Amino acid sequence: MTSPAETQGKSESFAKKTVKGAAWTYMAYVLNKLSGFIMTLILTRLIIPEQYGIVGFALTAISFFDAIRDLGVGAALIQRRENIEEAANTAFWLNLVSNFVFWLLMTLGAPAVADFFREPLLVVVLPIISTTFILTAIGGIHEALLTRSMQFQRRIIPEMASSFSKALFSIGLALILPDAHKVWAVVLGQVIGRIFWMFLMWAVNPWRPKLAFKLPVAGQMLNYGYKISLDSLISALQANIDYVFIGRFLGDTALGIYFVAFRVPELIIINFANVVAGVLFPAYAELEDRAKLKTAILGTLRYVALITVPAGIGLALISPLFAEVVFDPAYIDAGPMMALLSLYGMLLAVSWNIGDVYKAIARADILWRTSFIEMALLGIVLYFMAQISALHVAFGHVCVAFIVSLMRLLIAIRLLELDWRQTFAQFTPSVVGSAIMGAAVWLTLQVFAALPGVALLGLAILAGAVVYGASMWWLERTLVVRVVELIQDWLPERETETA
């Protein structure tokens, strides 16, 4: 029988391991996405919305194959407990072949996609941009092995190199290409970024695939992975159905503006949820005791909400001013869309990690079942909203995200036998603190409206950060201290590792 001291020790180990993983992963994420965001800001000054819309068409088209590019074998490898070497070799070759097939299908299907979006240039763009499938497959198992062993710090160099090379190459090409061909700056930048990522992923992980393929092992991994892939495919449909409808019904200009509007909520909120999920899956998979898993999921809900709720509310309040100050005037309509999409990202992020619990307890079937419901809701709501405007599409996202997040929480409460009052109480500090912060930001925008845009934006952000920090110190002092302690536990190790 496990003693209380041992249980507490394991709980502390889980927290430290998760925070260290999140810290390294979030560091890579910040550097990666920040460079991508800066690239987007610069390119909005160089590329008109119509050409950004063409890139949006292409990325939307490849996203569906990209969602299932490893057939779930990466997740299967992370979850696997025996014969890791033979499983890794089998997964590598399976991954490579499947992604070559996806590239071929995308190339052959390019004329049909071009006809759907009424954009002939896609016939040439899609075969080129979809080579990223093959490039990602070559380094995908290396990345999965690093994730499995929670060596997140070793993934920073490939991810940074990918992001910076893509940004520099895209901006450089956009500066020298004629206006009619600037779309190629973004397309070729995507490919260059993947090439750097592939080579450096092999450099940071010494594992090398052998010419070995075990059919029974492949069957085992695919049996686990197809459920993950099905959920990923449905998630890709959910994530891109707005682009599909806007591109089809409203055209490339509307899609280009919407595409840019999504970048900031994606950077600050949605990708944060992705980072946390990437860390939590291998961490949850180590927790075999259901009581520890309950404690972990409740703690995660609380921690994630403390970041995503204020981020969503604060960003929604400053979005119109942000678009006015930062974007080119051609993208000014992105402001109201960004405000709604910030709320959408917030609602989605607070329950995002629950799916990793299902994967960790081998109930990935729940993922695709709930995702199918979400997909059906999105399909109906966004189809009708896209007949009106891109802003209405963003509003539809908010409505569906509220319903879906509530559904995810209720399913987790029933499956894990959580106390519903205790579960929803995890959001109390973040909601109260964010309400106080929101009031401070709104008052700042009203009282100092005469200031220049840049000064007002900076003042509003500063006011929100200070007021929210003070609110959390008042409402959740113990939790704030605990977060600081966990980060301090991580820092000495980081210094040792990098010495």
Question: What's the topology here?
Answer:
Elements: H1 4-46, H2 49-67, H3 73-79, H4 84-117, H5 122-129, H6 132-148, H7 156-176, H8 183-204, H9 215-249, H10 252-285, H11 290-326, H12 334-349, H13 354-360, H14 365-385, H15 390-415, H16 420-425, H17 428-447, H18 453-475, H19 477-498
Helix pairs in contact: 1-7, 1-10, 1-19, 2-4, 2-5, 2-9, 2-10, 3-6, 3-9, 4-5, 4-6, 4-9, 6-8, 7-8, 9-10, 9-14, 10-11, 10-12, 10-13, 11-12, 11-17, 11-18, 12-15, 14-15, 17-18
Notes on the protein architecture:
The chain has helices at 4-46, 49-67, 73-79, 84-117, 122-129, 132-148, 156-176, 183-204, 215-249, 252-285, 290-326, 334-349, 354-360, 365-385, 390-415, 420-425, 428-447, 453-475, 477-498. By secondary structure, the chain is mainly α. It has a domain at 27-249. The longest helix has 43 residues, at 4-46. The model is unreliable at 1-12 and 492-499 (pLDDT under 50).
Q: What's the gist of this structure?
A:
This protein is mostly helical and 499 residues long. The chain has helices at 4-46, 49-67, 73-79, 84-117, 122-129, 132-148, 156-176, 183-204, 215-249, 252-285, 290-326, 334-349, 354-360, 365-385, 390-415, 420-425, 428-447, 453-475, 477-498.
Whole-number average pLDDT?
83
Name the quaternary structure.
Answer: single chain
- Nearest-angstrom radius of gyration? 23 Å
Estimate the helix proportion, in percent.
over 70%
Return the structural class: mainly alpha
- Uncertain runs are 1-12, 492-499
* H and E order: HHHHHHHHHHHHHHHHHHH
Considering the chains and any ligands shown, give keywords for the structure.
499 residues; 19 helices; globular; disordered C terminus; mainly alpha
